[in-house]
Design goal:
Strand content: 5-15%
Oligomer: single chain
Number of strands: 13
Structural class: alpha/beta
Largest sheet: 6 strands, parallel
Mean pLDDT: 87
Distance between the termini: 89 Å
Length: 1006
């Protein structure tokens, strides 16, 4: 017999179940800090060899052996309790001095464990737990610990301060290799090389989500922040990510974008690897990539789609079925009455798929009177083929490559058996289950069912939801007999209420397919009524956005797109409007197009709901920069309505107004103004001059006049619309703020830079209080403030606003979006004069090229961008190319908008400067004189452009030797600039220093 003294007391092997890795890591640190050598040995006994041999392997480990015991440790295998008692007694009888134990168990353990005299560490603080551990191993607790080379593992009884993840699955089995692989990828030598974002990819039912949940618990103590995000829908993911900000104590307001930005900044500033964010159900990279933090945070995602493989900085890790050993262990832990052979046969029949094994073993455990052989025969008789894996038409899971063809037909038999049991024991719960199948499976909002009006549910369900005890029992029944799980509002110890139910998509599909067409229609109508009852009917009100974010994912599953009910159609339109107003254009476009497909098929072309949807679709297409398609849609709708509506019908007028907005974006300003003027006049006749329809058309009319260069007319209309909206709507209404931003833009074009800055400062403050800085309206307002700041001479503030807006626009709208190009154009112009010239040239060239591809070579924005490129090229010293570009821009803008337009005058000013640099002084003089006269006539003699033209004329006159006339023009320009802009304004100082003036083309957002 070995004795304690003959063993190497300085070496310890720690045996632990993977479930208790945090305890093993903490214990190892306590021992190594006191000079001991430690080896970690994860305990996972095989069941195909005698248990004596398995435990004997552990007994042969060098040095002493410390067992970290809990109920999980004894549940592995599973090993019968009698075997544990026999082997422990035998081994400890021969090697008692080599074995020690600590326990964190909360339930009874094998009787022979008492021979180990385990130290109980459960519910202790760190100091007392360390004292008990060391005393059990015969180590003096007073012995000082050596300083750790790295951060010490967190004490398991003290989880991270920010730890919000689904409850741990106490039946989780196996997957140790997968979990260790994830950990190694995050922390190994390749970490940071695409390893900070790992996607668990696999077909449905393989346990991706469960692996992610277990990872957060098993390795969560290594992090300071552990946060779970339901990423099945972008709006929900944004809400959940933003909710992390207050949990971190970040000083933020209510704006969701501000919170997300603060979270991203905190993630970047955190030490490497101290954050763990999980995005579950991340099926659409295009909708989620901008939500993933940059920097050292560990990001774990689950998905069935393969699209993540093409996202830079992301590593995809495949998740497959259980191994047979894992399957057998799992089944025998859930249904202990099965012997190894029966568990093996069940696993083989169900192809080792965790989802099916969970359902079948739970049923076998709950139905002890049914012999396992009988249940197996039911499954095998049903397995006559393989499932095609086809989802419902509109709700296919994953992408086209999602291979679900490996599922056996037998799973229908397994689920049918459990469903029959539920119907027999709790028919109301079975009816509830059928209804839940008509909501989004990842987040079924059962709380909405308890809030419905009396009579909105079938009688049996209506009675069920109003009886708390029956309601609770029904939900418990679902969790026990079906493939659903419950999420609670609060801690289980405090009489919790179920917040939502999660149902596996395959199980949802099974439930729907087993209903008759009439039953499906009935449940769909009920689900739609639940959603209608939850509709706040105020999609533009920021206070209701959280509710709309909850409703949107359920529309398709509830069959809302096919409902003929006006209330349901209004719900759908409200959800589209919510996404549009919130600035989620990509999501809005996807939803709008899907609904349009259904309604165009099912509704009359003149149906009011379809016309409203097409109006919204056209607007969203414009906002997304898809102008040709928006024009085709707009013209088709106008033609259809003109054929069967009177010329003053509101629907026709609204369609013409929408078409005008598209033509405005395409550069057809005159025709757009005609459509707006007609709509405004007819709306005013029918509804009054202050009606919303009238104001919208008049606003568009003013915008068209602005783009036509008719600034005084535009000012009169836009000011009037703004004042009415301020009076009729709340000042913080998004339409009022939009009118204010456009009016402030116009004020800047008229040369009143201080007033423009003042107005935009107020607007940006309001927008930040109402939405967030990533909302397109906020981005554009910040951009316009940056431009006005630059014109006012405040370059530092201008640079911050312009660069920030450019970065956010590229992220939120995309690098090719028209509004992004507007912002990048102005940012490039700023960089040309006050930043990096080479970056300015590259950016200006990119803007010009993209405008050409998006709008065509003759569009005013394309031409204006070429003029800006000429200025940038001229700054590099390439005056020949600069002159060619200036000539092209002048001819192009003249063809596009005519000679009597401020844009043409600006291009002429730049061309005269290019000619001067090319030593064509007579040509420069001829054009600068013409420009000075035209600018004074069109804009007024004191307008900044008119004064710049006079300063340019003075420069050219000096070149021709006409000093006296030049001096007169120069004195007037300097004196007037000093009076209007101030003596220290950059324009005034440049004129005093005789620097040649220039003009930047500023494309206008629409």
């Amino acid at each position: 017999m070995d004795s304690p003294r003959s063993a190497d007391d300085r070496h310890l092997t720690i045996s632990y179940a993977g479930f208790n890795r945090p305890w093993a890591a903490w214990i190892a640190h306590q021992l190594t800090a006191r000079g001991h050598q430690v080896a970690l040995a994860r305990w996972d006994p095989r069941v195909d060899v005698p248990f004596e041999d398995e435990f004997g392997t552990l007994a042969r480990a060098p040095g002493r052996v410390l067992l970290v015991l809990d109920n999980w440790y004894f549940g592995l295998g599973p090993i019968p309790e009698d075997d544990w008692n026999r082997v422990l007694r035998d081994t400890l009888g021969r090697q008692a001095g080599r074995f020690a134990a600590v326990t964190v168990a909360t339930q009874p353990v094998p009787e022979a464990v008492q021979l180990l005299d385990p130290a109980d560490l459960h519910d202790l603080d760190e100091q007392e737990a360390a004292r008990r551990l060391l005393r059990r191993l015969g180590i003096d607790p007073a012995l000082p610990a050596r300083p750790a080379a790295a951060a010490a593992p967190r004490f398991p009884n003290e989880p991270p301060e920010v730890f919000d993840t689904p409850r741990r699955n106490r039946r989780f089995t196996g997957r140790d290799a997968e979990l260790e692989d994830i950990r190694a990828a995050f922390t190994g030598p390749t970490a940071g090389d695409g390893a900070d974002r790992i996607v668990l990819h696999g077909i449905s039912g393989t346990g991706k989500t469960q692996i992610a949940i277990e990872y957060t618990h098993r390795f969560g103590s290594d992090h300071d922040v552990v946060w779970w995000i339901d990423a099945s829908h972008r709006a929900k993911a944004r809400e959940r990510l933003a909710a992390l900000a207050p949990r971190l104590g970040l000083p933020v307001g209510e704006r969701i974008g501000e919170r997300i930005r603060a979270v991203h900044e905190a993630a970047r500033a955190a030490p490497p690897g101290r954050w763990l964010l999980v995005f579950d159900g991340a099926e659409d990279p295009a909708q989620l990539t901008d939500l993933l933090p940059d920097g050292p945070a560990h990001v774990l995602l689950t998905a069935t789609t393969r699209d993540w493989s093409g996202v830079p900085g992301t590593r995809v890790s495949g998740v497959h079925s259980f191994t047979r050993t894992e399957s057998v262990a799992y089944v025998r832990r859930r249904a202990a009455r099965l012997d190894p052979a029966e568990a093996d046969e069940l696993a083989a029949t169900l192809l080792d798929l965790p989802l099916l094994l969970a359902q079948s073993s739970a049923w076998l455990a709950a139905n002890a009177d049914v012999p396992p052989a009988e249940y197996l025969r039911l499954l095998q008789d049903g397995a006559t083929g393989t499932d095609t894996g086809a989802e419902d038409d509109q709700h296919a899971e994953g992408d086209e490559g999602d291979d679900t063809g490996g599922y056996p037909e037998g799973f229908r038999t397994a689920w049918s058996t459990t469903l029959a049991t539920l119907r027999e024991r709790n028919p109301e719960a079975a009816e509830l289950l059928n209804l839940l199948a008509f909501f989004a499976p990842d987040e079924i909002p059962v709380r909405l069912l308890t809030e419905v009006r009396h009579g909105d549910l079938p009688p049996a369900l209506d009675e069920l939801v109003r009886d708390p005890r029956s309601w609770h029992l029904a939900l418990r029944g679902l969790s026990e007999f079906t493939a659903v799980r419950l999420d609670y509002e609060q801690d289980l110890a405090e009489n919790p209420a179920v917040e939502q139910v999660r149902m596996h998509r395959l199980y949802q599909r099974f439930l729907r397919e087993n209903l008759t067409p009439e039953q499906r229609r009935t449940y769909a109508e009920t689900a739609c009524q639940v959603l209608v009852g939850a509709d706040p009917r105020r999609p533009a009100d920021t206070r209701d956005w959280e509710r709309y974010a909850l409703l949107v994912p359920h529309l398709g599953f509830a069959g809302a797109f096919d409902s003929p009910r006006a209330a349901v159609q209004d719900l759908v339109l409200n959800c589209v409007e919510y996404l549009r107003v919130r600035g989620e254009y990509r999501t809005a476009l996807v939803l709008c197009e899907e609904v349009h497909t259904h309604w165009r098929r099912d509704l009359d072309p003149a149906h009011g709901a379809l016309l409203s949807l097409q109006h919204k679709l056209g607007g969203i297409l414009r906002m997304a920069g898809r102008y040709p398609r928006a024009e085709r849609l707009g013209r088709a709708v106008v033609a259809r309505l003109e054929a069967d509506r009177p010329e003053d019908h509101p629907e026709l007028l609204r369609a013409k107004d929408a078409l005008g907005s598209t033509l405005l974006a395409l550069g057809q300003y005159a025709r757009a103004r005609e459509l707006f003027a007609e709509a405004a006049a007819r709306f005013a006749d029918q509804f009054g001059t202050e009606a919303p329809q009238t104001l919208a058309a008049r606003h568009n009319q003013g915008l068209a006049l602005l783009l036509l260069g008719r600034y005084p007319e535009a000012r009169a209309i836009l000011r009037d619309v703004l004042q009415i909206r301020q009076r009729r709507l709340r000042s913080r209404h998004h339409l009022t703020l939009h009118s204010g931003a456009v009016y402030a833009r116009l004020i800047r074009t008229l040369g009143d830079y201080p007033e423009s800055v003042s107005r935009l400062e107020q607007i940006t403050r309001m927008l930040r209080q109402l939405s967030d800085e990533r909302h397109p309206q906020s981005i554009l307002a910040d951009h316009q403030l940056g431009v006005s700041r630059r014109r006012a001479g405040d370059y530092a503030e201008a640079e911050e606003r312009l660069s920030g807006a450019a970065q956010r626009a590229a992220q939120v709208l995309g690098p090719r979006h028209p509004d992004t190009l507007v912002i990048q154009s102005d940012h490039a112009a700023f960089l040309r004069e006050h930043g990096d010239l080479q970056t300015a040239v590259r950016l200006t060239e990119s803007v010009a090229q993209l405008y050409g591809e998006l709008l065509g070579p003759q569009h005013p924005y394309t031409v204006g961008a070429l003029g800006n490129l000429g200025l940038a090229v001229g700054h590099t010293g390439d005056h020949r190319r600069a002159l060619a570009l200036a000539e092209t821009a002048f001819r192009g803008i003249t063809d596009a908008v005519g000679r009597d337009h401020p844009w043409t005058l600006g291009c002429a000013l730049n061309l005269s400067g290019a000619r001067s640099l090319a030593y064509d002084v007579p040509g420069a003089h001829e054009l600068s004189r013409e420009t000075a006269l035209g600018a004074a006539r069109l804009l007024g003699a004191t307008h900044p452009l008119a004064l710049s033209a006079r300063a340019a004329l003075a420069d050219d006159l000096r070149g021709l030797g006409e000093s006296a006339e030049a001096a007169g023009h120069e004195r007037y320009a300097v004196r007037t600039l000093s009076a209007t802009l101030g003596p220290e304004h950059p324009h005034t100082r440049d004129a005093q220093r005789r620097l040649r003036p220039y003009w930047d083309f500023e494309p206008q957002p629409l």
